[in-house]
Write a structure and sequence with these properties.
It is a single chain. The chain is built from three helices and no strands. With 93 residues, it is mostly helical. The mean pLDDT is 78. Helix 2 runs antiparallel to helix 3.
Length: 93
């Protein structure tokens, strides 16, 4: 039982899960503007719109998913070795 918990709460799995969640959210955010409206053809007059014409959310989301897969593969290929200790019995007085 302790071995399964040590694999579940391995820091590589936790980091991989967080990166995968953020990657999926950013990938969906990268696809959503293309699905909701047509992109403008000209330059934007809004100075805040610095990423006009780029799919930064989409690319960063895919990169995060790739790194998450690397973390999961690392945890699967090189698991943590937990040494089992035998239960000790109290000495009788």
């Amino acid at each position: 039982m302790a071995s399964k918990l040590s694999h579940l709460f391995d820091i590589r799995n936790v980091i991989g899960a967080l990166l995968a969640i953020y990657g999926v959210v950013l990938t969906i955010a990268g696809f959503a503007p293309g699905l909701l409206r047509e992109r403008d053809k000209g330059a934007s007059n809004n100075p805040v719109d610095l990423s006009f014409g780029t799919d930064a959310n989409w690319w960063v989301g895919l990169a995060l998913i790739g790194v998450a897969v690397a973390f999961f593969a690392w945890a699967w290929l090189r698991p943590v070795r937990v040494e089992e200790t035998p239960p000790t019995t109290p000495a009788s007085p």
